[in-house]
């Protein structure tokens, strides 16, 4: 149960467009979480899981964006202030919240729910699944200049999005059912789906763009997409000119 939030947080933060340089720590985060929960089990303390939403929000707060941009352009990420001080201070403040229970009880619950709702929605920014879901309702001419929009045909891109949403719905249904303990096994079944079945439908270039392994930032070079490449076919006038 801890593998899913750890992997989600690490994958979101390790995207190339975030321009982080100190690595993701996939294995170290998993080992530390398992070790802490092992000690919690020995001491009778509750298990602790990674806070994926808070982690993404914390990283977004440390992200440095460009101030010089044209009208209507999204801010470009220049880097992230990668350090441990802010996370340590936040953890200390969370621990001190126990001493401030009387003051925290004065905060209305709708305000707290609103903060958590905002953090959850804000953390979805940059997740390719949500971006591609919005593209299903947009005309092709308004698609962004991203690898999954330039290198993959719209029909196949929407098919991949549908498969992802279907698998997400299955995972959610299993988690909410009495068979929720089988969620890790259902999650493992996604591996052969990705490695054995999807390559028969999508080629390597398409999977690389749709998996989010490429940077979603617009490239400087003018690379032809499949529409432009189709219009580069030689015409009769070109043949006459060459002859």
From TrEMBL:
Domain of life, per lineage: Eukaryota
Gene Ontology CC entries for this record: plasma membrane
InterPro entries assigned to the protein according to its UniProt record, in alphabetical order: HCO3_transpt-like_TM_dom (IPR011531), HCO3_transpt_euk (IPR003020)
Major localization class: membrane
Cellular location(s): Membrane
A Pfam family that the UniProt record links to this protein: HCO3_cotransp
Protein name (Swiss-Prot/TrEMBL): Bicarbonate transporter-like transmembrane domain-containing protein
Organism expressing this protein natively: Cherax quadricarinatus
């Amino acid at each position: 149960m801890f593998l899913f939030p750890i992997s989600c947080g690490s994958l979101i933060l390790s995207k190339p467009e975030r321009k982080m340089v100190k690595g993701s720590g996939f294995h170290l985060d998993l080992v530390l979480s398992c070790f802490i929960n092992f000690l919690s089990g020995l001491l009778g303390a509750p298990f602790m899981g990674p806070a994926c939403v808070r982690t993404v929000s914390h990283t977004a707060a440390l992200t440095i964006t460009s101030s010089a941009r044209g009208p209507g352009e999204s801010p470009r990420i220049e880097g992230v202030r990668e350090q441990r001080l802010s996370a340590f201070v936040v953890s200390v403040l969370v621990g001190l919240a126990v001493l401030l229970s009387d003051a925290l009880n004065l905060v209305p619950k709708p305000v707290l729910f609103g903060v958590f709702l905002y953090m959850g929605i804000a953390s979805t920014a940059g997740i390719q699944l949500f971006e591609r879901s919005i593209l299903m309702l947009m005309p092709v001419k308004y698609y962004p200049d991203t690898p999954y929009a330039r290198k993959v045909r719209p029909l196949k891109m929407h098919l991949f999005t549908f498969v992802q949403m279907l698998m997400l719905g299955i995972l959610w249904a299993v988690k909410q059912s009495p068979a929720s303990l089988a969620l890790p096994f259902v999650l493992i079944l996604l591996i052969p789906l990705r490695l054995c079945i999807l390559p028969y439908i999508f080629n390597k270039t398409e999977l690389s763009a749709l998996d989010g392994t490429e940077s979603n930032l617009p490239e400087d070079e003018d690379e032809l997409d499949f529409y432009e490449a189709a219009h580069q076919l030689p015409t009769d006038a070109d043949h006459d000119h060459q002859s």
